Amino acid sequence: MVGENRPRPLVVFGPSAVGKGTIIKTIVNKFPNTFVLTVSYTTRKPREGEKDGKHYYFISREEFKQRIENGEFMEYAEVHKNLYGTTFKALQDVMKTGKVCILDVDSQGVKSIKALKTKLGNPYYMCVVPPCVNALRERIRHRGSESPEQLEMRLAAAMGEINFCHEIGQCDAKVVRLFYLLMMSFSPLFSSLLFSIQERESERERESYTMLYPSITYYTVTL
């Protein structure tokens, strides 16, 4: 349970491949004395460059299910036939340091965390969405790791995640990831987290994306 003198966790959610990991990494690197990412468990295979215990704890499906039966997971979900989950212990270990705990989850994780109510205090919720589905499609396609069938499956799941992100009351801050910078809509509580990431995109394309979200106040701050 979150004590009154402990910072509220930051829950980051959104569709797969939207770039949540990049955003979280930038936040942690920019504010290393304030934020720490909890290391989740997964049954999927490590990707190139990923290290066990740093990016995820890579375990078998059998072990994951045993941990579920033991009641170890605060939240867990099956995504693209792989299980992902965050344990209570992982959260508690971060909270003991006095830093803000960042949790990287999907809509299922958000629902599980909200169902815990006071056990986690009152977390901040930040959703990350792409400017449009086609932009996300191209991002996944350029990875070259998905078959046409897998691509369509990921996009179908992404649509559900995007719709969830846009539901009223689901988040305190919304980030539109343009894949060359970040445009953010933050309450004053999030003002210190405003930043942008320079990537490929033209000014004309940026303007067209901005038109898609006229109700969002955009901020761009270059690191």
Helix content: 25-40%
Residue windows where pLDDT falls under 50 for at least 5 positions: 180-223
The CATH superfamily label of one domain reads: P-loop containing nucleotide triphosphate hydrolases
Order of helices and strands: EHEEEHEEHEHEHHEEH
Bulk shape: globular
Classify the fold: give the CATH topology of one domain.
Answer: Rossmann fold
Main beta sheet: 6 strands, mixed
What is the CATH class name of one domain? Alpha Beta
Say how many strands there are: 10
Describe the structure.
The chain is an alpha/beta fold. It has a domain of 143 residues: P-loop containing nucleotide triphosphate hydrolases (Rossmann fold, 3-Layer(aba) Sandwich). Helices cover 35% and strands 21% of the residues. It is built from 7 helices and 10 strands. Strands 2-7-1-8-9-10 form a 6-stranded mixed beta sheet. The chain has a 4-stranded mixed beta sheet with strand order 4-3-6-5. Strand 5 and strand 6 form a beta hairpin. The relative contact order is 0.17.
